[in-house]
Amino acid sequence: MQAVVLEAKHDIKIRDIDPGEKLSPRDVRIRIHTVGVCGSDVHYYTHGRIGPFVVEKPMILGHEASGTVLEVGRDVKHLKTGDRVTMEPGIPDPNSKASRLGMYNLDPAVRFWATPPIHGVLRPEVIHPADFTFKVPDNVSFAEAAMVEPLAVGMHAATKAKVKPGDLAVVIGAGPIGMVTALAALAAGCSRVVMADIVDEKLALAATLGPVTPVNVKNKNLKQFVSDMTEGWGADVIFECSGSPRVAPTLFDPLAPGGTVVWVGMPVEPVSFDIVAAQVKEARIETVFRYAHVYPRALALLGSGQINVKPLITDTFPFEKSKEAFDFAVKMPPTSVKAQIELPA
Amino acid sequence: MQAVVLEAKHDIKIRDIDPGEKLSPRDVRIRIHTVGVCGSDVHYYTHGRIGPFVVEKPMILGHEASGTVLEVGRDVKHLKTGDRVTMEPGIPDPNSKASRLGMYNLDPAVRFWATPPIHGVLRPEVIHPADFTFKVPDNVSFAEAAMVEPLAVGMHAATKAKVKPGDLAVVIGAGPIGMVTALAALAAGCSRVVMADIVDEKLALAATLGPVTPVNVKNKNLKQFVSDMTEGWGADVIFECSGSPRVAPTLFDPLAPGGTVVWVGMPVEPVSFDIVAAQVKEARIETVFRYAHVYPRALALLGSGQINVKPLITDTFPFEKSKEAFDFAVKMPPTSVKAQIELPA
Amino acid sequence: MQAVVLEAKHDIKIRDIDPGEKLSPRDVRIRIHTVGVCGSDVHYYTHGRIGPFVVEKPMILGHEASGTVLEVGRDVKHLKTGDRVTMEPGIPDPNSKASRLGMYNLDPAVRFWATPPIHGVLRPEVIHPADFTFKVPDNVSFAEAAMVEPLAVGMHAATKAKVKPGDLAVVIGAGPIGMVTALAALAAGCSRVVMADIVDEKLALAATLGPVTPVNVKNKNLKQFVSDMTEGWGADVIFECSGSPRVAPTLFDPLAPGGTVVWVGMPVEPVSFDIVAAQVKEARIETVFRYAHVYPRALALLGSGQINVKPLITDTFPFEKSKEAFDFAVKMPPTSVKAQIELPA
Amino acid sequence: MQAVVLEAKHDIKIRDIDPGEKLSPRDVRIRIHTVGVCGSDVHYYTHGRIGPFVVEKPMILGHEASGTVLEVGRDVKHLKTGDRVTMEPGIPDPNSKASRLGMYNLDPAVRFWATPPIHGVLRPEVIHPADFTFKVPDNVSFAEAAMVEPLAVGMHAATKAKVKPGDLAVVIGAGPIGMVTALAALAAGCSRVVMADIVDEKLALAATLGPVTPVNVKNKNLKQFVSDMTEGWGADVIFECSGSPRVAPTLFDPLAPGGTVVWVGMPVEPVSFDIVAAQVKEARIETVFRYAHVYPRALALLGSGQINVKPLITDTFPFEKSKEAFDFAVKMPPTSVKAQIELPA
Description:
Four copies of one chain form a homotetramer.
Chain A: E1 2-8, E2 11-16, E3 27-36, H1 39-47, E4 49-50, E5 53-54, E6 59-60, E7 64-72, E8 84-87, E9 90-91, H2 97-100, E10 111-112, E11 125-129, E12 133-135, H3 142-145, H4 148-161, E13 168-172, H5 176-187, E14 192-197, H6 200-206, E15 212-216, H7 222-229, E16 235-240, E17 255-263, E18 271-273, H8 275-279, E19 284-287, H9 295-304, E20 313-318, H10 322-330, E21 338-342
Parallel strand pairs in A: 13-14, 13-16, 14-15, 16-17, 17-19, 20-21
Antiparallel strand pairs in A: 1-2, 1-6, 3-7, 3-11, 3-21, 4-5, 7-8, 8-12, 9-10
Helix pairs in contact in A: 4-5, 4-9
């Protein structure tokens, strides 16, 4: 089949490739409709690796996908041919200790689409476990369904935060993950999100997502800003979504006593903390890794209209322009959030 | 001052009365603007008592109130003259063990407006502890601010439920408390609320509040209805807001494994449970009593637009028609939810 | 093989039977050493049924077992021949939604030893999934290992209670489950357990288990007793282990504000609650069903000496006296807690 | 009265001083019996300051105290003359937002004994709020009661950890706080504590406290050690009690997926974390500051024998040898844990 293949660093081709998949009794075969371009895909394209994961042989890109069920294995009960679906890109060992405890995202054996050497899904078809394939509500488009993957990251962060209704949240970093985290935080009960970034265009878009107060931290002190909003008390939750180690030294400054920091961004280098600053507020720090059991919840919120991801889908490319989509994503303008690729019907 | 006084059962008068209050250093004096009529006020009017609380001497009615600060005690820092405010009607002993543990609503010494022998606030002015008086955002009206009291009940229930983003909730009983609980549940992260009642007009109003699916349980089986919506899994949270002991025997039927029941309604008689039906799902049952630390959160959600109580304020009476307001509330038509009384400016 | 077979109500035979089991790659074959006699085994013996579960054909009894691994399937990694083990008697569908969420005990498809029509383990050998077979520490005897099953019920209850260090707990009902729940509550952080029962001999044994204060509720008022111990505050946690519907009406009386009731006992008929009595304390009520992920934790606490179940193993019978063991259990003297059957080596 | 006064750095005198206290209605006057020497007292002695807190005028030392009630204010109900008591050294503003939320330890207005400019209690008498004065069980000695203050730190850490029964904990640092944290962790449900330090004498003492496995991390790799104990899974909870920034880079290595790190030690400089190492395990990090609502719980556990602090009270000095006690504490031998000073009766 024709797929978007990363041959090596800087070398994307659309070409024929056989992923060599076979339908097992608990699998479904899916026609792919839409695939989002994620920062990790782009990073493999530009760097050929992410940490220990190195592209050593050609790999199909793409892991944020939606499509239509073409065939179901004989033990599959909750899906049928023709169902519109979205898929979790990570497949754990269902018998691992982590999976059995309900934390399958922490299973070290997880096989994740477009993480070497596992193929991604920028291709016409994929075979996938039905347990990680989810029916999409009728009123949710394929494009929105392909946003469930990044949204799930924000949802998982908001779930781990244990947001209480009426909380004030700060989201640091107005990239795609910061945006979905803001949406998730609001859906999870926050009364308002303070979005902190240094790019005005991104902040302007964030401000359209709901009760989001943008603050450009190039010009304003975040601690003071939040203090002024809260009579000196601080924010209940801070979501770190920038991945920048530079935010760490002052991370606890805008936090309320008894507040929570969720570390969503993944800084490549160690970060330096002032532990005592956290202790005097008894900050709880949650760290998150992908998501578990979140897809059905994200789809329910999209279906009911409690979350609207449409403003984040800023750019769409046809399959044959996939290389252009990646080149666009490499130099994404600040007014864009998410580029998606549509496969031919 | 002129106040709405319940002289005895069935006997409301607007007449002069001196509540005998004095401003302490941590108090504020408030001009009352709007007061909601609550079911408990009506019950004192029609029955002269609620359980052990008996109206033995004339008592001013009303406890859902908003107004404007007229004067502040010398130790008050967070309020000033002219501030628009809403007030918690219950004042605990701040030094009780329950208060110090952060559960002041469970302090048996709580003095609660319009609960005999404590006067309520259907009167021009009241003196109140500043710690239980909250500034109202500019974009929230006095009428909405007077809704914070009932909303706080729903918010407290939704908080205790520990709603996870994307949960499906069932609310049983589409009275005022069921309505605010539905709003709170959605704001707290539910993707959808199934509202169960037996009166079509109430269900019709509920369906306008957001992603609320009404179900008339005179005609439909709630367990089957929820099962069909959830592929047989059930609802994550059930809020019992009817107060009817009749719902208890089948209360756990629509619940998902590992789900939560929050018992908000206060049945006057013992209710009969099937414990094993709860156990096979490991149901968690939370019981709630009023609210604690909820007012600022409710105001934040009203101010940011995440909760909109305006559809629930269906009837407004001027102060001099207070008796008519109570008579109206006694026989409230099913299309009405909340009657409020406005005091002269 | 020779097994203890319940042919029908009142009819136990030791006779040859073929359970027809086959070793799968993820299974182990186990030589059974010790099997405890549980109230449910006894109930099948005396009544031929428990609720919907009816003994319609001969069934091997016994589900509290320990033994030695004889053979391991080819995919089994954490066990080897000769390992001393204890086994969970319930085997869920690992792919069910409940199992994947980490709540395998709530999977309706669970197959449970000695619950019709599933055979139990009063027999020389059994084949069992390795995932539900646990290595026993060297310093824990087979007799103690066979106590892990009932202990797991108490451990699960204490875990769900979310005991905080220093809590005071009340355990209602000094039967075997009440005893293991008291041990688990103390290990989980309680400073003291008040054990309530009406049989002095049971209370005397309970008092030997650690800081356990016995109270015979035939002579003493439990609410007053706990109130006197706590300056009127009440107990932090109440474990209902009697299964008696009669305790329900006053169940919340000894509870502290913000306290928790765990309903461990399984009353056969509906029980009647005073919901308002629970609400004014905002009681949290947890219901439990068997256990999940508890065996390794129970074994760790036995191995480290933090829990000692030896005082509860009061009576031991050889395999050939199994019928006598059951007849003894039917009329257990109040000084006995647990009878066990030892199989020939 | 004669008190142990730190005149300035390196200058302790026993001399007459008037702390100028007056009994308010909610206060008690206490005769001091025993006072522990804490690392912070010693630090003020040797350095004249801790961070922003500088000894600028003479200050009485000591904050770990027990004694006997001499006089009670007129509003005090739960204490009477002659009661043996222990006292929390920190007095918050009961009306602060933090206090009202139940987190009085996070109130920035806390006045803490022997933290400049507040006097400590190495003196015959003190006046203290009754709400922060706790009756000691008859079977708990004054020496043990004076250990409640440091024990409360460990108890608070174990409470925040939300230990589940059967957890394995690692405690890093076998100083006094590491020791009480190990005791608290075991009382809170841990099956075993792995105590990590680099001084064999401290580890030897730790090993006598219960199921504590000592490991000298000069010779052994902690990650490997814990991995070998847990079939590669890791520890459920890690308590960082060394205060050393050097432990941070490898802190998450011995942790299990989904595990918790509690940061008890207070490193004076920023520490450097590998966030991704925490994320792949979704580590939860709790930070703690002193304690709140813990004293009654610690006393209950001491009274019931669930915690035994006696092995930690290694050295006792009479009041007139207070200077010697401090000089001893400055160069504490590794076989000592806690020095206490006894006042004349």
